[in-house]
Amino acid sequence: MNNKSKWIIRECAQNDAQTLLDFWRQAEATPCATDTLDDVGRMISTATVLVAEADGKVAGSIFGVFDGWRANIYRLAVDPGYRRRGIARALVAEVEKRLVQQGAKRFSAIVEADHPWAIGFWEAVGYSAKQRTVRYTRTLK
């Protein structure tokens, strides 16, 4: 892998569902009950699902959902070989932008507590831990 690889962010397509499932395993995301083709396909149909591509493959992913009250961000993951290149920051910025266009002003990120690198990342991009709810939130003005 070339450290200077170019990458792009694009909307996830239905035919990317299996690719996402495979990618999450490679990117060290903790498996969950919704890691099925049907569930991922449903998210692709109803949510803002973005992928970063580099060298012809998925290098990052993020889901964003706005329920009319708060935007929630899930499954921010970056392939270990592509970390520390700005992909995660770019994915967060893009999903926030798209959710703001839907009316979102307040964001929560679901973050795995046993991934200290993830906690450090979310704090670095302006989210803060709310111990009462154990969610990371950010209010956009």
Task: Give the arrangement of secondary structure elements.
Blueprint: E1 7-11, H1 17-26, H2 37-46, E2 48-54, E3 57-66, E4 71-78, H3 87-101, E5 106-109, H4 116-124, E6 128-130, E7 135-139
Helix pairs in contact: 1-2
Q: Which terms would index this structure?
A:
141 residues; 7-stranded mixed sheet; 31% helix; alpha+beta; globular; Aminopeptidase; single chain
Explain this structure to me?
This protein has 141 residues and is an alpha+beta fold. The chain has a domain at 7-104: Gcn5-related N-acetyltransferase (GNAT) (Aminopeptidase), CATH 3.40.630. It is 31% helix and 30% strand. It is built from four helices and seven strands, in the order βααβββαβαββ. The chain has helices at residues 17-26, 37-46, 87-101, 116-124, and strands spanning 7-11, 48-54, 57-66, 71-78, 106-109, 128-130, 135-139. Strands 1-2-3-4-5-7-6 form a seven-stranded mixed β-sheet, with helices on both faces. Helix 1 crosses helix 2 (37-46). The longest helix is centred in the middle third of the chain and has 15 residues, at 87-101.
